[in-house]
Design a protein that fits this description.
single chain; 601 residues; alpha+beta; eight-stranded antiparallel β-sheet; five-stranded antiparallel β-sheet; 16 helices; 24% strand; globular
Length: 601
């Protein structure tokens, strides 16, 4: 309770969390149409006529939008719910009134995106319920009744805006799912409007359809980006819970797809709770319901899923019953969570997601000494722009004993014309091979790919002795002398030995660069014909063909190599090994890793 009260008092003092920035002084009330980074106030013209990508006009729109999602206002409702303290509910009302006054319907930067309006509706819905619903004390008296009318009028304007500007074409991905979710949640929460039933029926039907369209049958979100997988899953789970509360259930196939999405997270998560940073990540949380700075969004989803689907494997991976799950399901759900750990349905870890293109190799999975390799043989992303996909075909991450060793370096930047944006989404930022210094897929801008590498799998098998996977991609078939790339992983479990074979089919001369990105806390040392990585008393030994030239980069800007981004806007130096060589016609290369080393750095 104290933590939520402290958070509420920070909001009353005008301090907001804006993405990675904590306790930003926005004032009470804030200037809602001002970017807190640049101080630029966006124009109060028709929102749909504002080019929100124009930084000179609106500043950094992501940072402007974030406080306008109203997670802090929901925090005030939480604090009021826990304490009954009128300071929090009164503060909520004052901020809401100021927002509606500063952001009249259709005008300004907060009326440019239907997704932003939908997320605001979701936070308003939760706040409405936590404050006490239609009989909340904040609606008492003449002024309270006036506030209620003002708020509901804005709710209806939001729903009309969202229904009119659904992302059917541009951003027809997680944006569309979020917009439908906001419309569904609002229509259930406030069934007062003539359009409410129509909005509810429409949004529910469309959510069912998008769960099929945007999710592979194996549970992988088609954007090929794990953070957006989590955001979409948040929308799906919330809508399912809202529907259950009024007895308007989603179909069994919708729920099955949601459970499969949870299985994917549980399967690529190592025993230490780490998830590969596949694809883009904007670090935003749809439901910022926990004030805990240590909240793990993926484990939280598994905790919620453990209760909803009675899954013992989800419960084990989640580890604890977190606050976000408590707010969503209620205090009583903690008893169910504990019971699932003793008598829930169990499932063996899934090793293959053939539609999404992800495969898990390794040994002693779910044990403290596990080796877990997650290989990416999937396509670039969703739809023609593949906005949030990375050029990472045939890359992989490696976790050993619950710690990351070979990593996906993350995202860092969403900024237009930022070289770091192009680097982090490009092929050289992943544990795979670059041919002729070109990325596998051709970028056309910040969220656009002009040419997509196709990828696939020839073989995957897992026995008690060995895991084998062979994949390919055609990203370099576009070269004047086309090159087809094939990679095979062979992991021998008893020996704890991984062999990687790379084959190149071509006729002419080409340069090759093999990239190996190590976790920031790994110390690496080049040796004759090999490299040793050290961490916490363990050593990983990597060897390769002696014809390759080896270089290690750490925090290099020219070329940009040796960086790891844990979250948007932050990067730290790490060690990247580059093995370079040339071929003249077809050629194969072999590299190998041994996990039994205990050498000292």
């Amino acid at each position: 309770v104290e933590a939520y009260c402290r958070a509420g008092h920070r909001t009353l003092a005008g301090q907001f969390d804006v993405l990675e920035m904590k306790d930003v002084e926005l004032g009470n009330p804030p200037v809602w149409n001002r970017d807190p980074i640049t101080g630029i106030t966006a124009p109060m013209i028709l929102g749909k006529r504002i080019d929100y990508r124009n930084r000179a006009r609106v500043g950094n729109i992501k940072y402007l939008w974030e406080p306008n999602r109203h997670a802090e206002l929901m925090g005030l409702a939480q604090a009021h719910h826990l304490t009954g303290d009128a300071r929090f509910s009164d503060g909520f009302r004052q901020l809401m009134v100021s927002w509606i006054a500063q952001c009249p319907a259709g005008l300004g930067p907060n009326w440019t995106s239907a997704l932003e309006a939908s997320i605001r509706l979701i936070n308003w819905s939760i706040s409405w319920q936590l404050l006490g619903g239609d009989s909340a004390s904040v609606f008492a008296g003449t002024s309270g009744a006036s506030f209620r009318e003002t708020w509901l009028n804005s709710v209806r304007q939001h729903c009309q805006f969202v229904s009119r500007y659904l992302s059917r074409y541009s951003s027809a991905n997680n944006h569309l799912i979020g917009e439908l979710a906001g419309l569904f949640v609002a229509s259930v929460t406030w069934p007062f409007f003539p359009e409410s039933i129509r909005w509810q029926t429409f949004a529910k039907r469309e959510l069912e359809e998008q769960s099929r369209i945007q999710t592979f049958s194996d549970g992988v979100n088609k954007e090929q980006a794990i953070w957006y997988h989590h955001e979409v899953l948040d929308f799906f789970l919330l809508c399912d819970l809202i529907a259950r509360s009024i007895g308007v259930d989603f179909s069994s196939s919708y729920r099955a797809r949601t459970e499969q999405m949870l299985e994917y997270i549980a399967s690529i998560m190592d025993v230490g709770g780490h998830v590969p940073a596949i694809g883009d990540a904007d670090d935003a949380q749809i439901l910022r319901m926990s004030v805990a700075t240590s909240l793990d969004v993926f484990r939280s989803l598994l905790a919620t899923g453990a209760v909803l689907f009675n899954r013992q494997d989800f419960q084990k991976k989640a580890g604890t019953f977190d606050d976000k799950t408590r707010w969503l399901l209620g205090d009583h759900a903690e008893v169910s969570f504990d019971a699932v750990g003793k008598a829930g349905r169990g499932a063996l870890p899934r090793r293959s997601f053939p539609d999404g293109g992800y495969y898990v190799l390794g040994s002693d999975l779910e044990q403290t000494n596990e080796v877990r390799l997650v290989a990416d043989c999937g396509n670039l992303g969703f739809l023609s722009i593949a906005a949030h996909g990375h050029a990472d075909a045939l890359s992989f991450t490696l976790f050993w004993c619950g710690e990351p060793w070979l990593i996906d370096p993350g995202i860092f930047s969403y900024s237009t014309n930022d070289p770091a944006r192009e680097y982090f989404k490009g092929t050289s930022a992943h544990n795979t091979v670059v041919v002729d210094s070109c990325s596998q897929s051709v970028s056309g801008g910040t969220f656009l790919w002009l040419r997509h590498a196709r990828a696939g799998v020839d073989r995957f098998e897992s026995t008690d002795e060995c895991d084998r996977l062979t994949g390919w991609h055609d990203g370099y078939r576009r070269l004047r002398d086309p090159v087809k790339v094939r990679r095979s992983w062979t992991y021998r479990k008893q020996e704890r030995y991984l062999q990687i074979d790379d084959e190149f089919s071509c006729k002419g001369d080409h340069s090759l660069d093999f990239f190996w990105h190590f976790a920031p806390d790994c110390a690496v040392r080049l040796e004759s014909g090999g490299l040793v990585a050290f961490k916490n008393g363990r050593s990983l030994e990597l060897g390769w063909n002696e014809q390759l030239r080896a270089r290690v980069y750490r925090g290099s800007m020219n070329p940009m190599l040796g960086w790891y981004s844990r979250k948007l806007g932050e990067k730290v130096p790490t060690s990247t090994l580059v093995l370079s060589g040339r071929i003249a016609g077809p050629r194969s290369f072999t590299s190998h890793l041994s996990f039994n080393g205990s050498r000292k750095p």
